[in-house]
Design goal:
- With 216 residues, the protein is α/β, with parallel strands linked by helices.
- The protein folds into two domains: 143 residues, Rossmann fold (3-Layer(aba) Sandwich); 67 residues, Putative phosphatase, domain 2 (DNA polymerase, domain 1, Orthogonal Bundle), CATH 1.10.150.240.
- Helix content is 47%, strand content 12%.
- A six-stranded parallel beta sheet has the order 3-2-1-4-5-6, sandwiched between helices.
- The radius of gyration is 17 Å and the shape is globular.
- The chain binds magnesium ion.
- Magnesium ion binds next to loops.
């Protein structure tokens, strides 16, 4: 793995298996605000983006702003369900045990959300001090800013970084940053991650793919 210096993990859907919960919470909230949205609508349209991006997409079509407490409502409902339902993505703890490269987290979620979810599944201590949020930069995914910031803070050149992502926005952000991108097709259909350098369907494939990419 000589070529790579840093492995950047997305959080939601890659470390913590939060997307089934988060997309149901978002769909229910938007529907309650008068913008009917199914779970699959939410996966297809919003997965991997920020809540600001949800506002930017919904408000022009709805013809009025979403409530001022939209973000608070979302986090309140999400955290309540995470406490009892959230698990780590299958196989990711074992993959982290075996990676012999520096790692970090770069997530569209807020810092409190990232910390809360990682602590709930027991992965927080592995990344403490190496967690980067869309809150830290002006433009979130699909812009490259967050990944470039994570690389800079870690002292690695972008072309020495590998990004693990489960959303089209995240894949786009990683490629725009000039990084190698591994797409994880967990909840997201693989064909929506086709811009990634490789796509894996299970975390058991992560280490073999890192080795293969490093040697090509
Ligand atoms: Mg994700």
């Amino acid at each position: 793995m000589a070529r790579f210096e840093l492995v950047i993990f997305d959080n939601d859907g890659v470390l913590v298996d939060s997307e089934p919960i988060a997309n149901q919470v978002l769909a229910d909230l938007l529907t309650g605000y008068g913008w009917p949205t199914t779970f699959q609508d939410s996966v297809n349209t919003y997965l991997g983006g920020t809540l600001q991006h949800v506002r930017d997409l919904v408000e022009p079509q709805l013809g009025r702003p979403l409530p001022a407490d939209f973000e608070d409502q979302y986090h309140e409902r999400l955290f309540a369900r995470i406490e009892t339902e959230l698990t780590a993505v299958p196989g990711v703890a074992d993959a982290l045990d075996r990676i012999d490269l520096p790692t970090c987290v770069a997530s569209s979620g807020s810092h409190p959300r990232i910390e809360r979810t990682l602590k709930t599944v027991g992965l927080y201590d592995r990344f403490a001090g190496r967690i980067f949020s869309a809150d830290d930069v002006t433009r979130g995914k699909p812009f490259p800013d967050l990944f470039l910031y994570a690389a800079e803070q870690s002292g690695s050149a972008p072309d020495r970084c590998v990004v693990i992502e489960d959303s089209p926005y995240g894949v786009a952000a990683g490629k725009a940053a000039g990084m190698t991108v591994i797409g994880y097709a967990g909840v997201t259909p693989a064909d929506r991650l086709q811009d990634a350098d490789v796509i894996i369907a299970a975390m058991t494939e992560l280490l073999p793919e890192l080795d293969r990419l490093a040697s090509r």
